[in-house]
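Checklist before submission:
- one chain only
- standard amino acids only
- sequence pasted in full

Submission:
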Amino acid sequence: MNVTRKLAAIVYADVAGHSRLTGADEEGTHKTLSVYLDAITARIENHGGQVLHYAGDAILAEFA
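Returned file contents:
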């Protein structure tokens, strides 16, 4: 079995209070979240990272 190793930094982030925010203003929260995720994705990619997964209000990225 061949195992490939690499050094990487993993970033996981989510929105604190997302459920509360969604309960107060679902449409506004989703619009704002979309803007933020787009901005965060652009910054990750601009710094050599790659988004591995989105899950609701969370993002998982790798810098390798």
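Reviewer check: Residues 41 and 51 are 7 Å apart (CA to CA).
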